[in-house]
């Protein structure tokens, strides 16, 4: 598969469990660095909260390098790991989740915390608005200038995007191409007298 769901935008959901308030913020992030910055922004929004536990799948869903989590002071393994587990099973990518907790005076115990953080993320994801993200390969296209308008019109019917244009003797377009578009792209390029180069 060359596509996966991702959050449409930053979204927030609120849950009360045994008088503790759990504020779940779902963030759309392209990579791990952006995720860490976005998580800090949420921490700054609620500086008086007891905990800001988080998890991320901050790239394509299968890329473990961009997955991480934190209990942020809750007992080890009771918050970040359960949150990450829910994220991993959701199929979402480009996602970070922060669960901000305001302690309500009733201790939940280790099992109760695992359920509370898991439930907070599950509930948020069940209401989440998503978009389709694509796993793309970069390719370079050499194209006669006379064919640019025709090619750009055709591109509108695909999920391929133009990353950069360079103008010289021929037109050079740098493309980001989903795997499912490569066959049709090659056929169209051949018809237009262009040349496709895999980077």
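^ Assign residues to that structure.
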């Amino acid at each position: 598969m060359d596509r996966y769901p991702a959050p449409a935008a930053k979204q927030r959901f609120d849950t009360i469990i045994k008088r503790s308030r759990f504020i779940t913020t779902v963030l759309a992030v392209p990579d791990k660095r952006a995720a860490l910055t976005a998580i800090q922004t949420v921490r700054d929004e609620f500086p008086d909260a007891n905990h800001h536990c988080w998890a991320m799948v901050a790239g394509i869903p299968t890329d473990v390098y961009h997955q991480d989590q934190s209990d942020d002071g809750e007992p080890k393994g009771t918050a970040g790991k359960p949150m990450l587990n829910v994220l991993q099973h959701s199929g979402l990518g480009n996602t970070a989740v922060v669960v901000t907790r305001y302690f309500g005076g009733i201790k939940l115990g280790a099992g109760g915390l695992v359920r509370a953080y898991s439930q907070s993320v599950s509930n948020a994801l069940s209401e989440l608005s998503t978009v389709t993200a694509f796993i793309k390969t970069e390719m370079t296209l050499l194209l006669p200038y006379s064919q640019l308008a025709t090619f750009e019109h055709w591109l509108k019917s695909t999920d391929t995007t133009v990353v950069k244009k360079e103008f010289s003797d021929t037109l050079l377009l740098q493309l980001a191409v989903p795997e499912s578009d490569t066959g049709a792209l090659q056929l169209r390029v051949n018809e237009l007298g262009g040349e496709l180069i895999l980077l």
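The chain is about 30% helix and 35% strand.
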